[in-house]
Each structure stands twice: as structure tokens, then as C-alpha cells.
Amino acid sequence: MMMRRGMLLQGALRAASVWDCKLFSSSVVRQGCPAVEELPESVHVEESHEASAGPSDSNLQRSGIRNVVKKVKQYGRGGRPSVETNSKIELIQDPRMMKLFNLVKEGNFEELKAAHERLLKEGANSGEKGLDVYLYSRLMTQCVRQVGNETALPIFELMVQSGVTLNVVPYTIVIRALMDLADDEKFHHSGQQGLKEVAKSEALASKGLELLHEMRSRGIRPNELTYKPIMSWLPPRGRDAQFQELKEFMAVDGVPFTGVFKFYEIRLALKVGDLKKAERLYIQAKKENDNIASSLDAHFLSTFSQADRVDDLIDLLPKVLPVMNSDKGTASAFQCLGKHRRHEAALSFLTLLKKSGGSVEQLNRAFVGYILGSAKSNKLDETLKARSDVEEQCRIEAPPEVYNILIDACCKHGHVSRGLDLLDEMQQKGKKLSPYAFNPFICDFARWGMHEEAFEMKAAMGRLGVQPSVVTYSTLINCCVKLGDMERAYSLLAEMKTNGIEPNAHCYNPLIMGFGSQERLDRALEVLKEMLAAGVQPDSYTYSMLIFACSMVRNEDKAVELFEGMLQRGVQPNAAIYSAMASVFARCGNLERSIEMVKEIERRGEEVGTEAKSAVLAGLALAGRLEEARALYGALRREGAFPEAYSVGILLVAVGKAGDLDGMFGIFEDCRKENLWTKLTYQQRAEFLNVRCINVVLGCVRHNQLGRALQFLRKVKDENIADVAVLFDKIFLHISNGGRDENEMCWLDVDDGFTVVAAMRELGLKPSRMALEALLDGCASMNDAEQAQRVVSEMEKEGLALNVFTQIRFSIVLEL
After folding, report:
1. How far apart are CA 552 and CA 563, in angstroms?
2. For residues 740 and 747, is the Cβ–Cβ distance under 8 A?
3. Per-position b or e across 679-696, b if 16+ CB within 10 A of its CB
4. How far apart are CA 145 and CA 221, in angstroms?
5. How confident is the model at residue 4 (pLDDT cuts 50, 70, 90)?
6. Where are the alpha helices (DSSP H) in 75-167?
7. What is the pLDDT of residues 591-639, one digit of tens each?
8. 3-state class of 192 per DSSP?
9. Which sections of the protein are PPR repeats (predicted)?
């Protein structure tokens, strides 16, 4: 575990030997360490210049460090090995250090302590030269570089116990290692950082700060490299008070607050929302050094833009545009102007940028940012006009990216023809065509079910020599999956590989979902094998679809195997996966295991999610355990959650079948509430309510409550909940299927169908031909010739002539 973690975290300190170069050459010599000579002055000059330029991030810092390493090697004198090489020789030549180093590599820290104590005793008894600060520092450096940052503190603690005289070098090494660990924890859990990870990061940083205070209390003065990792850790967390305290310490310790430290101060002001201070510091820094890191430009303007401080941005841009180094920062500013529809300001600043010598790339990025922001305002006509105004007034020709954004906006607003006009214009003007110009059409056609048109657009790409992208193929694969044409979908995957386009998870996942929906688990697993063979790592969605496929064929063992394999691959289960597992257990008749899984997750303090509980709810309802199902439903409602639509539908059906009509009506009213099941489209939600209306009517009819059914149907008609005539047709289709629903619940027979006919007449509705034909099919499925004769009589009563198909159905029943 130690070795694996060391490999993950050691990247931030790969240049540890350079700390030795800098530290030993300055502070250590000053404090009397005899083992190190000073480096040539030119090395210090270069590093000082690099620091004043204000590196924007750890990558730039490391880049600067690499330059120093080269200088160190360059100035090696008279065959004397470079400092980096010398560090290795020192360790290899000292068997004591080598022994300790090997124990660290093995992660055997208990034996490390024991071996260290033995070395100290042996040294004291033999009278040999003992371990000094130089050797300990070399050991720390080597361990950090080859094992990981977490090794620095244990070795530092051994050094303190040994009683050697400390100096700035070991303190700086251990502080930097701790702060890099704190940063790595934060980075590794970015976007999903839990409380434990936050606490760990804070503890590491607190230890680093504690050591800084300790060294100052011992009279050991920190230098620039000691302060830098702590000062860089504070701004992203908004620690203004601690930052100002350390800034005062730096002044006392004679460490200049320049270069990168000013960069950190500006970032801190942006983080805490003091934009006026950030603006003042930024402009001052630009005056002192117009080569300040471009990432600060980007971060500075991006912060104003993301905060939607458009008025402050308009005030600021005239001051900073002429000295901006960052295309990214410029683009974010213009995107904000477009989003807030500040068209006149945008045109003015584009003109200013052009006059101040902005590069073609910078002008293009600004133009693209402006149109992208304008498109987000959802004012299509204004966005199209904005492009024309920039071309005409600013004399800046629209790059292909602007056309791509406009085409996408046209498609999203349903103006496909205007998008096609823009595509024609791109061709006529010789603009470079890319998949980004075609994908919006393909996505729009797919969204509206115009699948052949989507494929025709792909064919047009081929004719124009435009290579389809991964998005093109993934959209078309989804098209085929929705149509149920899995073989065509699978052939697209093969075509991608033939064309040299590497499929990603968005291409494989729909195939797995499609095969799973068709209960073709074997094919879904074949796709998973191909996915792994191609080096594409399955994600949580992949596994949720595979486990769902297992539930479709009731293969509990395979689902468990997939779940365990998922954990081994480091994919963390989410609500969808827990839901799929709960569904598998319930459908395989192992409902208790499903319930226990949910309870175990809650005992661990993890979030189960509504989806998994919905699967348990559906399982309880299907198993007829209505008291438990109603209790779970009530608990979810009290928590402010609402079960998934399918589980509520199953519960409503089960409650109605059991004869609890009041409970059934109550659940139906819950389903009608707004803001439920936001993942469902309007059409899906309407269809869901239609089906639930049918369930309610069937429940009433099944229990001879025709009056309540009629009362409900009048409400449906008056409140326009659903089309009543369509509902009746669907009820009769249900009877034609033998009175069974998708959950294999037997509801009603043909006798109930005639009751429904009576209900229709009371509402002033006539049964349609389709309704009576469906009822006749129901008679056929039940081999009931007598009831079939009644259906024919009803048709004659309604004046519906017996057509060929009716006569065929009737004759089949008579033969049976």
C-alpha cells in the first residue's frame, strides 16, 4: 500500500535534489554546513529571475526547477559530478544510509526505527563520525523522490530524535512534502471530495504550518522555498488571515515578497471575492512585470466573468486588454459580455484589442468567446446579428468555430434550415469543415426520431471529406439502440475502428444498454470484453447497465460477479448501481438480500439513494408485502424524496389489486404533483399518467366499484388529465392480452370488459371498433365462444359492420 501510494503522490517533488542545490548554496552555507560548496552566482540569478516572473502553477515551477538542474550540471567543475549525481554517490557510499533507505522502500517503518537506534548506538560506541544533517537531508530527498512524499516526516522525526543540529534544509524538505501531500489529496478528490479527504488535507497542512513556526522558534530562518508551498496552498482555500500572517513573517525573515508570492496574493483576493483588491494588485503587478504568467491573466478575467461581474469587467478591460498575454482570459471576458448581451461594449473592446496589436489567434478566441456567450443568452436572432456586426464593424472575419457555434444554436432552437444555410456559407467561403459543423444536425435529427436523416448527414460528411468524430458515431449508435437495431449499432463500432477512430465509453455503453434491454446478456458481456481489450475503462454507468442486463434475465450470480469486479477496478458504486443490484436480488426472488444490502449501506453511513430504495419498494409490492411497501413509501415521502416512477406504478397496481382503493387513489394524486421525475420528458410523463389512469380504472372495475371508476373518469375528462376515449381503448387492449400487465398481475376477464362498455355508455361515449375487436381477442385468448357472441352483438348494437378480420377472429373462437 505504501509503495502504491508513494507512486501516486511523488510527482510533485521529482526535483527534490534542486532544493538541495538552492538551500545548501544559500542558507546552509550561511548556517555552517561544511559538506556543501556554493553554486556559481549565475545559477542564483537565473532562479531569482524565474521567481520574479511569477510562475502560474506547479508545472511552471517545475519547469523552472528543471532549468536550474541543467545549470547545475553545466557549471560542474573539473570533473566534479553534478549535485544530482553526487547525491546518489553519497547515499551509495554510506552503507548506513543505504540500509535505512532500503527499509523505507519496503515500507517497514518499525524496523526503520529499530535500525536507526542501532546505528546511533554503534556510532556512539565506535567513536566514528555520526550521522549529520547533510546525510539525513540526503536520505529524505532520496526517499521522497523514489518512494513518496509521505516518507519525509518519519525520517525527519528520526533526525530530531538523534539530536543533530537542524538547519533550514530538512525543515524545507519536510514542509514541502507535507504541503504537496495536502495538495495531492485535494486534487485527487476534486469534485467529489468527502469530509475525510478534507480533514486529511487540513491535517497535513496544519503539520506543515506547525513545523514552520517551530523552526522560527529555534532561530532557523525559513527561505523562499520554505514559504512557497504553504503560501500556494492557502489561496484556493480562502485563508486570508493565515496568508497575511505569513507575509509578515517573510518580511521579518528577509524573504522578498515578490514574483510568485504576488501571484498567490492576487489569487487569494479573487478567491475571497475582494475583486477591487485583486484588480489593484493585478494592475500593479503588470506594471512591474508585463511578462507575469499568462495563467494569472486567464484566472483573473475568468474569475470576474464567472462571477458575472459584467460592469466591473467593462471597467477593467480597457486597462488590461493592451497588456494581456492570455487568449483564454480574453475569451472568458468576451463570453461574459455576450452572455449578458453587452453587444456595444463587446464591439468596442474587440476594436481596442485589434488596435493594440492583438494576434489573429487572440482576436479569434475573443470572437468565438463572444458568440459562445451570446448563444447562451438563447436569443438566436441577436446571436446571428452579433456575428454580422463583428465582421462588418470590427473587420474581423469569423473563424470556423463561430460558424460551428451558430449552427449548434440554430439546431437547438429548431431552425435546422438556418443551420443548413450557414453550412452552405462555410462551403462557399472555403471555411474548414469539421465534425463540429455536422454533429448538431445529427444530434437534432436523432432527438426527434429522424434516424434516416441523421445517417444521411453522416453520408454527406463522407462526400465532403469530413471524417466523423466520436460524437458522430456515439449519436448514431444511440439512434440504432433506440430503434432496437442492435446489429446496425454494432456495425458502427466496427466501422469506427476501421476508420482509425477510437471508441470511448459513450460508444460502448449504449450497446451494452441495448443488448441488455433485449435480454441478450451474452452480447452485452462481449461488448464489455471488447471495451477492456481496447483499453477503455468501464465506468459506473457501464456497470449499472450490465447489472441491469443481469436483472432482465434474472442472473444474480453474474450480477454479483460484475459488482465485485467493478470494485476491484476501483469504480465506486453509485445510486444507479445500488438500484440495479437491489433490482437483481428482488427479481431473482432474493428480496431479503436486497433489503439487507440497503440497510448495510446505511449502516456504513453511505448515501443509498432513492433509486435503490425504489427497487426494494417495487420488489416488496410485487411480492405482495404491501404493509412493508407502504411503510417504505411513507418513509421516503417524509424524507422529502419520491420513489422512481416505475416503482410507484407497481405499488399503485398492487394496492389497487389488493382492494385498497383509497390508498390507490392517494398514490395517484401523489403522481400528479409537479416537479416529479425531472429525468422524464413531457411525453414520457404524460404516458406515465395515462397508464396510471388505466390502472386506477381497472382497480375499480376489478372490485365492482363501477361508480368510483365513473367518478374518476369524469375527473380525468374535466381536468384534462388524459384522453378518456384513448384510455378505454387501452383498457380493452389490456383485456385482449389475457388481462395481465407487464408485471404479470392478472387483473380482469371479458366479463369485466362488458362492465367497462357499460361505463363508457354512462359517460356518453361509444365503444370504438378497436375496443370491441380487442375484447373479441380477449375471448379468443380465453377460448370463450359464448362471450365472443356477446361481443359481436355489441358491435351490431353500435352499428359496426363485421369486417373480414372480425369474422376471422369470431370463426377462430367458434372453432376453438
Report:
1. 16
2. yes
3. eeeeeebeebbbbbbbbb
4. 25
5. very low
6. 83-93, 95-106, 109-126, 133-146, 152-162
7. 899 899 888 888 888 777 788 888 899 999 988 899 999 999 999 888 8
8. coil
9. 399-433, 434-468, 469-503, 504-538, 539-573, 574-608, 768-802
